[in-house]
Design a protein that fits this description.
By secondary structure, the chain is an alpha+beta fold. The protein has helices at residues 2-22, 48-69, 98-105, 204-213, 306-310, and strands at 27-30, 36-39, 80-82, 107-117, 125-146, 158-177, 182-200, 221-236, 244-257, 270-287, 290-303, 315-326, 336-345, 351-358. The chain has a single domain, classed as Lipocalin, CATH 2.40.128. Pfam families: Omp_AT (PF11557).
Length: 362
């Protein structure tokens, strides 16, 4: 929790500094899940750099969050969201509440992954290529609050804001199988992503500040190139019934904006994730001569950078059950397909989802 405390301290210091620039004319902006910043009613030219840095930090937060949420080894956000606590009469932010499930419904992700690897070439080594297309969207209500007593600003209207990130990833690496059970992998790759924000100014306070933040924090777009380094360590059992495996995957991301413009000057996304997971498989009778199996999974996910503040934690858990069908005999592009139900525990996105599975570890 020390990481989260340092982030909170840094953000509080930023808020105090910005407030000192603009005094009581400043506005407080609260955006659930993605943005938390302070903006001015009017920005003196000398302080415009501070606003640019603050806006850059918010855009970094969205880009970093999109990278983590579209990494299928990190989190699952399916098409159908549900509150697992409602089945047992439990309303808890840790396991999922009506509020956290509502947040999940405002976040949409789409990932189309592809993975190709060679046969073992020499002394346990093989190569692989990974690619994927991704889309991330978050819708938010933005509340502007002037720095006056609450009773003087109780009739405020909220803005609507929609942030999107879409792009692609291409990378490659090597696998090394150093025993019957153990395998290690190392890979590098690059993400080319496009960030876009569409914002409607519905509040009289936000309309007053629109000239200073439009094209910078809101109604802005940035293209970024983000490199990543990934390491994996996997232990796989050879049990015929109920085969299982455990894995530990660390991924580091760092990049920079490659587009020019008002919003791109301060954007340098940097984050990381560490996923420790366990899987148990149970083979089922063939259906129309197609192999299929159940998969049970448990994961602990640690995250850094702005993502820890976005998810309101630096670690959380995910538990799931999936049903996979082997499709490798019909196409070189599709190894397997299926469906799963998973539960996220301990983050701002706690709750359950039903997801489509595609090209998962068999």
């Amino acid at each position: 929790m020390a990481t989260q405390e340092r982030m909170e301290t840094r953000n509080e210091a930023t808020d105090r500094a910005l407030s000192s620039f603009w005094g009581r004319a400043a506005l407080r902006v609260q955006v659930p899940l993605i943005v938390f910043t302070t903006l001015p009613m009017a920005v003196p030219a000398a302080e415009s750099g501070a606003v640019s840095r603050s806006a850059g930090q918010q855009i970094e937060s969205v880009i970093e969050t999109s990278l983590i949420l579209t990494d299928k080894d990190a989190v699952s956000l399916g098409a159908l969201q549900f509150d697992p606590g409602s089945f047992v009469g439990l309303d808890s932010e840790q396991f999922g509440s009506s509020e956290s499930v509502n947040r999940r419904r405002k976040v949409r992700t789409f990932v189309l992954p592809w993975h190709w690897k060679t046969e073992e070439v020499e002394q346990g080594f093989s190569k692989y290529i990974r690619a994927r297309l991704m889309y991330f969207q978050a819708e938010q209500d933005v509340v502007y609050r002037p720095q006056t007593p609450p009773e003087q600003s109780s009739n405020e209207a909220s803005d609507t804001s929609k942030s999107r990130v879409y792009g692609g990833f291409l990378g490659g690496g090597v696998n090394y199988k150093f025993s019957e059970h153990w395998k290690a992998s190392f890979g590098v790759g690059a993400h080319l992503v496009r960030y876009q924000n569409d914002h409607d100014y519905n509040s009289i306070y936000s309309q007053a500040a629109a000239a200073d933040v439009d094209g910078l924090l809101f109604n802005s777009s940035v293209t970024a190139l983000v490199g990543s380094v990934r390491t994996d360590l996997t232990y796989k059992s050879q049990a015929e019934s109920f085969p299982w495996h455990v894995s530990s995957t660390y991924t580091y991301y760092a990049g920079d904006a490659v587009s020019s413009g008002r919003a791109a000057d301060e954007v340098e996304p940097e984050t990381w994730s560490w996923v420790n997971a366990a899987y148990i498989h149970a083979d089922l009778p063939q259906i129309s001569d197609v192999d299929n199996r159940l998969r049970f999974s448990a994961k602990r996910i640690d995250v850094g950078g702005e993502v820890a503040r976005t998810l309101a934690t630096d670690n959380y858990y995910e538990f799931g059950i999936g049903w996979l069908f082997d499709m490798s005999g019909g196409s070189s592009w599709v190894d397997n397909i299926g469906a799963s139900a998973s539960v996220n525990v301990g983050s701002a996105l706690s709750g359950g989802s039903v997801s489509i599975l595609y090209n998962e570890e068999w």
